[in-house]
Structure formats: C-alpha cells, structure tokens
Amino acid sequence: MNPTPSHNDADGARVAQFVSLTCQRGAENALKQEMAKRRPNYKFSYSRPGFLTYKLPNPEALDKRLALDVRSMRLVFARSCAHSIGAVLKRDASDSQGAFNRREAAKLVWNIVERELGEESQTAQEAQRAGKILPKIARIHVYERDRFEMGARGFEPGLTQDAFDVHQTILDAAPESYRANFGQNVERLDSPADPNELCLDVALVEQDEWRLGLHLANDSHSRYPGGLIPLKLPTDAASRAFLKFEEGLRWAQFPIGVGARCVDIGAAPGGGSQALLARGAETLGVDPAEMDPRVLAHPKFTHLRGRVNQLKRKLFRKSRWFITDMNVAPNYTLAALEELVARDDIAARGLLFTLKLFDWKLADNIPDYLARVKSWGFNVVKARQLLFNRQEIMVAALKKPFHK
Question: How far is CA 348 from the centre of its chain?
C-alpha cells in the first residue's frame, strides 16, 4: 500500500497525512515497536528496508506536524523524520521508452511542493486565517535509504553519488519563486541547514521512487539530509570508534573542550580517545591491551594499563567525563560504569557510551537501561542509534546543573 499524498480533494477537505521515518537497515522491527509505544494511534502504512511510513490519526496544521520529529517522539531507532507531501513514481515520470526520467521527476517535485505550500494551497490558507507566516523552503535534502545492512560488503550509510546527482537536478528545476528563499550553500547537499530552516526531503526509496516530505532543521542530525552527517574516518584514526564518538559528541552536545578531564574505559586501540583529544581534552585511556602508538604519543593522553575495577579510584577523582565502547552485553557495560561513577568520591558530570544489542530483543530493555543510569544521579539521559553505530545504541547522560 502506498501512502496517499497530503493534499486537498475536490471538496477542499484534507485527505490522509503521513510521516516517514528512516532507520538503519535491520532496525525496522525495533522502530516499529517504539512507534507502537510512543504513537499507538499512528497506523503503520508502507515500508521498505530502512524506510517506514505511518498514517496520522487526524489531519494537522503544518506547524503542528513540523513540531513532530525524532527528538519529540523520543525515538531511539529513527534516523530521520519527515512529513509526507507526496511521491514521484516511475509511472508519473517515464520517457517514451518507459524509463524513469529524472528531469521530468524533478518538475513533478516542484508541482507537489506548490500544491502543498503554494499561495492557493489549503496549507497557505490555513496559515493566513490563523495569522501565521508559512515557512519557506530553504534546503533540499536528498538521501537514499540504506541499501545494505551495516557492515555488509563494507557498507556504511552516507550521502551517495545518486543523491548528489538528484539534488542537482531538483535544484536546477526549482522555480524562481522558490529560489528566492533558499539558504546559503543550498547548492551543496552536504552543507548543514541552519537551525529552524524548512527542508524539502526527497527520499530515494528506489531509483524510480522518490518520497517527498518536509521537516524543520533543529538538532545535529536533522540539519543534514536523512540525518547523514558527512563524517569520514581520518587516515590517522586508531579505530572506527573515532567515528562513533565524534558523531556521539556532536549529538550529545557535551561542553568538552580544552582542559576537560575525560576517561575512556576499554580504550584500546584509541579511536574514542582521539575524538576527545581532538577537542583538547586531558584523556585517561583505561585498557589492559596495547594502545595505538599515535595515541600514546599525544601529550594529553595517559594510558592506565589494566581493567577499571583493578585501578585505584583516586586516579579518577579529577575526571568529569566518561566514555566507553565495550564489546560486552549491556548489563556488563552498565555494571562497569556503575562501579566507577555511582560513588560519592567520583564526581562524574557526563557519560557517553554504547550498549551492544547482540539480540534485537534487547531493544525492549532500553527503558530499563536508561532508568538505571538515571538512578546514578544523571537527570538528562537519552539514547539513539547513531549513523556509525552498528547493532548497538549510544547513550548520553548528563548531570544538569553540575555543582561539583
């Protein structure tokens, strides 16, 4: 079943509205379980691996729809959220030989946008009656759903060449009336949107199936197409953990900078520590294994060789930020952190760590895991499956305000 575009019927009534979500390929069932709990009145409608749509229970004004996003729904497994306005399918944009024609498809994109946001649209009329200013499209976000599961054939999600090509085609077809409202660097697909800019989403579900939507840029991920932050593994990175924690630190927005005192538990070979060191943090790396020589050579890095439960607590008394990416079951990770930070003599301000979901059924336990972290005195706790996570989630915990 294909979701019906949101538009006016012949009598001026608004037909069904939908929200579209992307996620890591393989995480669809975990996301469905979340939606069943968070939005039980939303009806599952249509999906492809890594892409799901839900029907809203009642039509809503655009401003209310745009207030709904991954963060407001508290979804762990959704990578992006858009408010559907229609679709361009092969049958709509075929050439004389029956092949999908991208230039024709791009024209249809703007026809759908005009129907949804143009001066004669019901959306514009509703805004006018309410005395509200209808937001203007500032960005065009084009992205593909994941083609493979994370790690399969070396696959990692990101902006593809097809996404760049389609973005340029749609940009070239934009009417002048819309160009006047485009933001800076709109010609660069990988350039972040400014906060509160309205983005036109074009999800390339298939080569000849484009799903269109709208969203407001707000957090670190929604500023990029499909939540695909364009990070690359540096050539001198000790491990892939650098990407996890670089993305995680941006998402968590921890105030870690020059002079911050941090601990990386299970640090070897040192990718996570490098993400901290790049911010100027004083970093203790705890691990019985060898560290990468490039990490050891950093003047702000100290290797504590051993397991965290074997080391004297006084070594950590000046530390305020703790990260870990251990390849163990969630309860083992939580036990190791609890032993260290849930003590009066350790003044931890924030935690950033992964929880491995060796079985997807463990996703049902996430609320319990987060409640356990809160019981240690962290009053801001959130979780998300980040772009560079595999079958795992990232948890950020903060004490706010922090007085010690």
Answer: 26
Residue with tokens 């991208």: 102
pTM as predicted: 0.92
| Residue 394 contacts residue 244 (beta carbons within 8 Å) | yes
Query: Is 283 within 8 Å of 301 (Cβ atoms)?
Result: yes
CB 325 within 8 A of CB 295: no
Q: Please give the structure tokens belonging to residue 89.
A: 């399918």
Instruction: Determine the distance from the C-alpha atom of residue 310 to the mean position of all C-alpha atoms in its chain, rounded to a whole number.
Output: 36
Assign 3-state DSSP to the chain and report helix, strand, coil percentages, each to 5.
Answer: 30, 25, 45
| H/E stretch holding 127 | helix 122-129
Order of strands, edge to edge, in the sheet holding 43-48? 43-48, 51-55, 18-22, 80-89, 209-216, 198-206, 137-144
Q: Are 309 and 336 in contact (CB under 8 A)?
A: yes
Q: What is the C-alpha separation between 245 and 51, in angstroms, rounded? A: 25
Question: How buried is 81 (Cβ within 10 angstroms: 0-12 exposed, 13-18 middle, 19+ buried)?
Answer: buried
What type of residue is 170? Answer: I
What is the token pair recorded at 398?
A: 């903060």
Beta carbons of 65 and 83 less than 8 angstroms apart:
yes
> What is the Cα 215 distance to its own chain's centre?
13
Task: List the structure tokens of 105.
Answer: 């498809």
- Distance, first Cα to last Cα, the chain: 56
Three-class SS state of 150: coil
Dist CA 47 CA 305 (whole Å): 48
20-53 pLDDT, tens digit per residue, is 999 999 999 999 999 999 999 999 999 999 999 9
- How do residues 342-391 score in pLDDT, each as one tens digit? 888 889 999 999 999 999 999 999 999 999 999 999 999 999 999 999 99
The one-letter amino acid code at 347 reads A
Task: Assess whether the previous peptide bond of 269 is cis (omega < 30° from 0).
Answer: yes
Query: In this structure, what DSSP letter does residue 298 have?
Result: -
Distance CA 215, CA 231 (A): 22
Tokens of 250: 């941006």
Interatomic CA distance for residues 286 and 388, integer angstroms = 23
Please check whether residue 379 is in contact with residue 402, taking contact to mean a CB–CB distance below 8 angstroms.
no
Question: Are 63 and 216 within 8 A, CB to CB?
Answer: no
